[in-house]
Each structure stands twice: as structure tokens, then as C-alpha cells.
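Format notes (please read before filing issues)

Several people have asked whether sequences and C-alpha cells are stored in separate files. They are not. Every record keeps both together, in the order shown below: the sequence lines, then the C-alpha cell lines. Line labels are part of the format and must not be stripped during preprocessing.
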Amino acid sequence: MKEMIIPIEYKRLFDTDWREAAVYGGRYSLKSHTIARVLLIRARQKKTRVACFREFQNSIADSSYQLLADLIKQYELTDFIVTNNSIVNTLNGSDFIFKGLWNNEQSIKSIEGIDIAWVEEAQTVSEKSLEVLTPTVRKDGSQIIYTYNRLLEEDPVHKRLVLEGRPNTLIINVNYDIALKYGMMPDVIRLEMEDDKAKRPGLYKHKWLGEPHNLERRIYKDWDIIDTIPHEARLERYGLDFGYTNDPTSIVAIYKYNGGFILDEICYQKGLSNKQIADILKSIDRALVIADSSEPKSIDEIKLYGVNVLPSIKGQGSINKGIQYVQDQRISVTKRSYNILKEYRSYLWMEDKEGKIINTAEDAFNHSMDAIRYGLDSYKPPVNIFNNLPNKKGFI
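Then the structure lines:
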């Protein structure tokens, strides 16, 4: 085994006198890598069941599984066996399991004997998930570690552990200075940080110092989460945002119901060809598809496969006008729509250098949001250009 370095700031994670730990801060504060190392060490010391959670996890690829597997390989921890969906220590029986919290209440409640729960990206965890998780991790002496970069002032996990406080809570607030202290920050990252600090102070405060965004930056609010689509709801559209290697293709079903709209996630996947997209759309109930108009060749190809698809309408100010139209609607989302809900919570207006909110959406967490905008934008009433023309004599 190669030597593992654990910064002293994280030393208390080896103690057993705390129940919950809030480990939070900005980018490159070594949170995830250090927690993973700590858990591997503790799992080698004695038999330990470690449950690794995230709010949204459709597959093990969305979890901390790969990070742990990479560290096992890097440090030559030959006493661990990495399977397709778990990690097991062959000497003492310690094991790591991986689960998503959202819409998974019964599966979470059925897990027995958790010694340590690690909740990664905990800024996205809902109050409901916290209410399910904490009594599930009920073994005598069990502990829960939450790692997160604060997103908004209302993040439930930060409110619970830091602002309100809970008995026997360990709080570790760290930022990039810890990586500088131990010589663990690559020059390319350091230069990025220094550039943000000099030119983009608002971004620097959130990204590197872990300060939360103002609630006013959230673009969409007050969407309802529903269990199922009512029988009376009428499917009318699919919104389609193209992706491939780096970005997922997002397909969202849009239903009209009781004066509002219901959104249901159909697809959120990388690497899909146009043929595969067409096959997905042909395998579900038929409805008009509104797709990103910046991909005309893809739209034409999908049409050839027999899909009724039209390009979205774009032009000057079309994004903000589309956002405004979505904001004006009563929106519900099915609880199975993991990625829609994840993006909904994280879709924000940009800030300028001084930290003031500007009327431009961040180019992040926007794949499903764009698909929704394309689909709903097609409902907007057409603009009558003649209404804006001067009333000249002889004009009819």
C-alpha cells in the first residue's frame, strides 16, 4: 500500500464522538477525495458498512463509486474487490453500497446495518430525503457525513446542520487554501482561481469560497412535484434538446392539465445517435416534437425516420422570452423526473463582476430546461406584426 495523505483539517473524521458531519466549502478544497480516503482507511480498520448516497442517482455511474475504485487502484489496496455495483473488503467484510435518495424511500429504508453514510453533493438533498435518511442510519454509533458546495441560501442540509444545528454535529468548513497548503493544487487550477479572483469577484466568492447564491438568482420557482400523471392529462408536446459526447440528449413530455402543464422526463442520456433518438420517440405515445433549431441536419434526419418534429423558434431575445413564458405557467413535474428536478433547482441567472444579477441564464444545468422551453414556447400566441405598424392612410 502506498502512503495516503490526509490533511489535518480532516482528522476529526476518524473520531466516533459525532453523529453528523457537515463538510463544506468551495472548489478544490479536497472534500470528496479526502472523505473517500478516510472511508477506505476506516473500512480497513474494522468491518464497516458504508452507504454512499446522492440525491439524484439513476445509475452507479452517477455515484462516488468510480472515485473509490480509482483510489483503490492508485493506492494498491489489494484487500478490496471492486464489483459492478459494490466494493467489498475481503479481509474483514467491509462493504460500500451506492444509492440515490430521491424517489427511493422504500429502498433506502430497507438497508440494514449502516455504520457510515456519505452523502455527496448534499446541497441538492431535499428536506424529505433528509427525513428518510437520518432515521434509516440508526445503528448504535452510526455516523452521517455530508459533503457539499453551498448552492443557495435555502439548502436544507446547511440549514439543518449549520444554521439551526443538531446535537453532536461536526462542522468542517474548508476552501482552496487547504490545497495550496499541502501542495495539492495544480498550477492550471491555481491560475484559474487567481483569474476569477481578479476579474470575476462574484464568481470567485461562490466557486472558490463556497458562498451561496442569492435566492433571487433562481430562474424557476414554485413548481409542484406530483406522484403520477393524472389520467385526464393530455399529452401535446415533446421538447428535445440535442446532446452527444459531453452533453446529454434531453427529451421532456409536456402534458396540458387543469390550466397548467405537467412535465415528465423521457430521456436524459449522452451518446445517442439521431436514429436512437428517433427510436425512443417512436416507442412512446405520439405527439409533436419541438427540437433545438440549431441542429437542422439532425431534425431533418429524425424526420426521415418518421417522427413529427419541428424546429424551435429562435431569434433576438428568444431565450429570455421563452423563460418568461415558462415562468408565467403553472408547472408540475413528476417525481420520477430526476434530471428535470436537479436542473430546476440549479438553473440560475448570471452575475456580473460585482455580483449583481443580470438577465442572462447561466450556460449550465440547462439541457432539460432548454427542452422544456422549446416545447412550451410553441404554445405562445403568434405575434401580430401589424399591431406595431403606424396607421397610415390607405393601409388596410
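For reference, the curators noted about this record: Residues 384-396 have pLDDT under 50 and may be disordered. The domain at 8-207 is CATH 3.40.50.300 (Rossmann fold).
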